């Protein structure tokens, strides 16, 4: 991931010290979402975002990310929103409904607010896969979400 951070900061067309980011974090699967949040914050800080320009808001679960993201994106001072969540498949179709709803909802918030609203949501088959993507052997998808937010601000 360090290579991605370096390439973004070297090419950045905007002054990130003046940009304000909201990170909306689902409390469900907290051990995973906290690791993703930490990855996103560290990446933003490494890219030059001031700590005081990172606003965190918690929501109960991944499905609630949509409304949380909308509320944050509607704030004039917020430049981009990063949504952090984790849905792990169980034995019922609940997984499918949550994943489909939050994907569609976050897309709608992007379109409605015309601000970058980034999908930093893990949708995994089991907890092991989630841990591998929250700082494990497959990196930290929270970092990737932060990089995506910056790239979309530059777009």
How would you characterize the overall build of this protein?
The protein is α/β, with parallel strands linked by helices. The chain has a single domain (27-53, 69-154), classed as Rossmann fold (3-Layer(aba) Sandwich), CATH 3.40.50.960. Helix content is 50%, strand content 22%. The strands form two sheets. Strands 2-1-3-4 form a four-stranded parallel β-sheet, sandwiched between helices. A two-stranded antiparallel sheet has the order 5-6. Strand 1 (21-26), helix 2 (30-46) and strand 2 (54-59) form a beta-alpha-beta unit. Helix 2 (30-46) crosses helix 6 and helix 3 (65-73) runs parallel beside helix 4 (94-113). The longest helix has 20 residues, at 94-113. The mean pLDDT is 92.
Question: What is the compact description of this entry?
Answer:
The chain has 155 residues and is an alpha/beta fold. It has six helices and six strands. It has a four-stranded parallel beta sheet with strand order 2-1-3-4, with helices on both faces.
CATH superfamily: Lumazine/riboflavin synthase
* Sheet with most strands: 4 strands, parallel
Rg over CA atoms, rounded to whole Å, is 15 Å
Q: What is the CATH architecture annotation?
A: 3-Layer(aba) Sandwich
Question: What's the CATH topology label?
Answer: Rossmann fold
The helix content, as a percent range, equals 40-55%
Q: Which residues form runs of ≥5 with pLDDT under 50? A: none
């Amino acid at each position: 991931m360090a290579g991605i951070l370096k390439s973004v900061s070297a090419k950045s067309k905007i002054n990130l010290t003046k940009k304000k980011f909201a990170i909306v974090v689902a409390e469900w699967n907290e051990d995973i979402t906290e690791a993703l949040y930490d990855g996103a914050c560290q990446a933003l800080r490494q890219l030059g975002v001031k700590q005081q320009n990172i606003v965190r808001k918690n929501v109960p679960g991944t499905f609630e990310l949509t409304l949380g993201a909308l509320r944050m994106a509607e704030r004039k001072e917020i430049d981009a929103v990063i949504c952090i969540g984790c849905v792990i498949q169980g034995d019922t179709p609940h997984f499918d409904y949550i994943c489909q709803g939050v994907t569609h909802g976050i897309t709608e918030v992007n379109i409605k607010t015309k601000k970058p609203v980034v999908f930093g949501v893990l949708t995994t088959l089991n907890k092991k896969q989630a841990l591998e993507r929250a700082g494990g052997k497959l990196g930290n998808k929270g970092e990737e979400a932060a990089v995506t937010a910056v790239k979309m601000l530059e777009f």
